[in-house]
Design brief:
Layout: E1 10-13, E2 20-24, E3 31-35, E4 44-48, E5 54-59, H1 62-87, H2 96-103, H3 109-132, E6 135-139, E7 142-147, E8 150-155, E9 161-165, E10 168-172, E11 178-183, H4 188-197, E12 202-203, E13 213-214, H5 226-238, H6 243-255, E14 258-263, E15 266-271
Parallel strand pairs: 9-12
Antiparallel strand pairs: 1-8, 2-3, 4-5, 5-6, 6-7, 7-8, 9-10, 10-11, 13-15, 14-15
Helix pairs in contact: 1-2, 1-3, 5-6
Length: about 280
């Protein structure tokens, strides 16, 4: 029977109008509501449900990411004006036309304008970075991962081990199936402490890393249909705008019992145990 990780975790869209988070009591069907932590304050927080269960919330502070990108954008704008002044003095230098156009704007309007435009671009990049960043909500009964406006909920019984694999957080389930694999910018020490504090297993390296082998067309040992999915996924990886498509294809491969990890644009695969 093909393996599937789909049943282990559920995905749902976040609603920005909802201020209360529901969490089931493992002793019965009673539902407890806990306040939702504002995304801008999510660095590392500890909450308690009405039943007294501890919940650790980890996330990258949104305000810091946005501010960092805005400051970097403004600095780049200032450097661009200096570079334009230098380029117009070199007859052989490229981009003479844009440099002359920029230097034709009188100061201080030139520097202020360039810094403002680049800062606004940095603001956009900052919001994208916040949207792409990973958040984790860890309790004794479940792990909730939040990324790209979606929440994925994994019950404790489904998680065998939480793993750091390079710059990615991996949740392993029964039969060595990967329940989740997400890029992670959170503190690894804080993640390890949070998982172990709530009773989950933690490893600083994927125990199955040596089982992965590089995918090339015609690989033997793949289940029927896996090669076509890997080819489609390879094409999606070449186009950064197709990240969602690559994620969906990873999920389809997981249903066939094929686990995929990426490294420098290349795909590596292994098969999960069939139990």
């Amino acid at each position: 029977m093909p393996l599937s990780a789909a049943g282990a975790g559920t995905t749902r869209r976040k609603s920005r109008s909802v201020d209360m988070r529901k969490e089931a009591d493992p002793r019965g069907s009673q539902i407890a509501q806990t306040p939702q932590t504002p995304p801008s304050l999510r660095t590392e927080l500890t909450e308690r449900t009405p039943q007294g269960r501890k919940v650790t919330v980890l996330g990258e502070p949104a305000w810091f990411l946005v501010l960092f990108c805005v400051v970097c954008g403004g600095a780049i704008g200032w450097v661009v004006t200096l570079a334009a002044d230098w380029l117009v003095t070199l007859r052989w230098a490229p981009l003479q036309g844009p440099a002359e156009l920029l230097t034709s704007v009188p100061e201080p309007g030139r520097t202020i304008g360039a810094a403002t435009v680049c800062a606004l671009l940095g603001l956009v990049v900052g919001f994208i970075a916040v949207h792409e960043s990973l958040g984790a909500r860890i309790s004794d009964v479940r792990v909730v991962l939040t990324i790209r406006g979606e929440e994925r909920d994994f019950p404790r019984d489904a998680i065998v081990l939480a793993v750091r694999d390079g710059k990615q957080l991996v949740l392993l389930g029964r039969g060595d199936v990967e329940l989740a694999r997400e890029d992670c910018g959170l503190s690894w020490q804080r993640l390890a402490d949070a998982f172990t504090e709530h009773g989950y297993g933690w490893a600083d390296e994927d125990p199955h890393r040596s089982e992965f082998r590089r995918w090339v067309p015609g690989n033997a040992g793949l289940p029927e249909g896996a090669s076509a999915l890997l080819e489609a996924r390879a094409a999606a990886l070449k186009t950064k705008n197709d990240a969602d498509d690559a994620r969906e294809l990873r999920a389809e491969l997981a249903k066939l019992g094929v686990i995929v990890r990426d490294e420098k644009g290349r795909q590596y695969w292994r098969t999960a145990r069939r139990g």
